[in-house]
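User: Hello, can you help with two protein structures?

Assistant: Certainly.
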Amino acid sequence: MVLVYSDNKKITIEILSKASEIAKEQKKKVTAVIIGKPDENLAKEYISYGAEEVFIAETELESFKSEEYSDILASIVKETGTETILIGSNKNGKELSARLGGKLNAGCVVDSNNIYIKNNKLMAERVVYSGNAIAVEQFNSTPAIITVPSKAFDSLKKDDSRKGEITKKKIESEKSKSKILKAHEMKSEGTNVEDAEIIVSCGRGFKDKGDIKLVQELADILKGKTVGCSRPLAADLKWLSEEHWIGLSGHKVKPKLYIAAGISGQIQHIAGMRDSGIIVAINKDPEALIFRSADYGIVGDLYEVLPKLTDAVKAKMG
């Protein structure tokens, strides 16, 4: 069995695509897991995206706790004889996968962007050394745990005619000593960069915080309305919040269009946006590293290029 879990619905749907591919090759079944209150509508949605079974683990827990959740998943794995476990690689998923690996004495590969079968062995690839190399890792035992980041795989086309089984079961977990005293929801300034289809990013080429309006104006005209930035603007200068930070230590994005203005193109930034559909770079230095990763490059002063580009897009879009 190939088991899929994430507390993020979107990531679960994306992972179901790869899970279906692996399960077909291994002649196994794809099972999605929901932990918490029984949500049959969500279960049916997972089935429409490729799950052959949805296991709803009913629990009284009101919020995610990795100790209890890993206990619940371990019980499901042992009960179903699961061989492959795919977990969404968000903050909760990374903590959960590590604990689960410890409980099951299982191998765990994090942030895999490619999973396949070779010589009857499960293989997982992940980017290492800030994007300078790809590690190819082979599992020699089961169960195998792999965490998958957002947008690593495209979801299957939704098909409401797909049939699947929904299993509900109350699973008790050992109460941990840790307690969640209070949870504060992070206030968002706009569209999450990880979900954006169009991103206009700014870098150290900008001389003043107020000049970022040039990037915002272009983003608004493109109807993307999402502004990103490189590390110095968020971590050092604090011109933008960390919500906008794109890079190895920030957010990894995969928009259809990524425009980088005044960004030199250090590997740490490239690692965060390298999977973008079309990359456009604007930099006055013709030798800037960003041009090596760009599909289109404009060599020029961003203070001259951005207003003209904004006007041109505005005229084109009416």
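That covers the first. Now for the second protein you mentioned:
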Amino acid sequence: MFTDLFNTILYNPILNALIGIYNVIPWHDFGLSVVIITLLIKIILYPLTASSLKSQKALQDLQPKMQELKEKHKGNQQAIAQETMKLYKANNVNPLSSCLPLLVQLPILLALYWALRDGIATVDPARLYSFIEYPGEINPLAFGFLQLSAPSYVLAVLAGLAQYAQARMLSHKKGPHVPGAKDENMMAMMNKQMLYVMPVVTVLIGASLPAALTLYWFISTVLTWLQQILLWKKQGKPGVSQVS
């Protein structure tokens, strides 16, 4: 039941979109098909991504006030939790919304992984819609040099660098130093670990996957980074509401 639903909603549409684009674009380049499908997915997920980025920025801007609350109610975890929720409410921040796009992307990534795997191999004609022409064997060589069916270490490193650039931009959005905030060094250490660990994980995973999926991840990360830059410029540095 779940498998049929997954195939109907995600796998079959993505596979057919990939093959359909491959059929109509010049030179029948599957790499270009991956680029186009990535753009389409990013457009569909744009509202969720924008919401996530806004939440991340808002949470980062609230860090100084959160540190003040921890110092003010030191040792009283219940008071800290209550005041933190008031701070979130006063500034219209939902800390869970930053995780939503990732949760939505996981099934899409799985569907895309299988679609790319099956697309690069021999496509099952039974999976194609009636209006999608069966292409036969697909050429896995993209742009004349990139073998999509094999891992690409260069592309994995590029994806890691894109991940680092995005994380670094967020980590630099910090408020002023709060004297006496003993948790600040710990938080800075955790932010630094995320800044370096996630790109390394991206490289390691990307180096073990077919280049077609790593290409998607690289382009998707770059587009998210650009969206983040535009959002940061548009929003500027918002004020933080006080909690009495």
